[in-house]
Amino acid sequence: DTAVSQTPKYLVTQMGNDKSIKCEQNLGHDTMYWYKQDSKKFLKIMFSYNNKELIINETVPNRFSPKSPDKAHLNLHINSLELGDSAVYFCASSPTEDTEAFFGQGTRLTVV
Amino acid sequence: SQQGEEDPQALSIQEGENATMNCSYKTSINNLQWYRQNSGRGLVHLILIRSNEREKHSGRLRVTLDTSKKSSSLLITASRAADTASYFCATERTGANNLFFGTGTRLTVIP
Lengths: 112, 111
Known about the structure:
The complex is a heterodimer. Chain A is mainly β. Helices cover 0% and strands 49% of the residues of chain A. By secondary structure, chain B is mostly beta strands. In chain B, strands 2, 4, 5, 9, 10 and 11 form a 6-stranded mixed β-sheet that branches. Chain B has a 5-stranded antiparallel β-sheet with strand order 1-3-8-7-6, with no helix packed on it. The relative contact order of chain B is 0.36. Chain A binds chain B through residues 4, 31, 33, 35, 41-45, 48, 55, 90, 92, 94, 96-106, and chain B through 2, 30-31, 33, 35, 41-45, 48, 50, 86, 88, 90, 92, 96-101, 103-104.
């Protein structure tokens, strides 16, 4: 069974569109994350979220917003997509601080 | 900015040789973790070493941590072609529960 799953795996869309990437974890973890990996393979935290607190990396444009309908899901909504948003987006979860994170397989977003 | 820097950026070795990758970071940490990423895939956790630990082993992996130098190393012994991947160090900063990743080392093991 997949522990952290993301959909879609690939997403190609035009500039200006609004899109969502879904993430689900079946591990019962309290905290979920979104990371962005750019074309140079740099990985940066975008958001971390548990049922108490949303922490946003201040460099993330407000066109990006996480939505958590429940503890097992953290979806990423992106408004007015730009060319520079093209990247691979990874969802992850962890049970608590000071433990390993489990990553999804990533969503390759291409904005044309 | 990136939390950590890794070197080398790329490493190519023969099967059976050992591979050593280094990671440096800048702030106080709870732990340091190493992850592997195969091409086009997600990240897989390899090993976690806490700030009060100096060395940890897992199978063919050996990780060291020197908090005074803010550095860590990952040693893969008796490498295999299947070890070909990118390896990232990531730190969990004191007071934060997300990870800050290094720049990664691309390891190629030649059969």
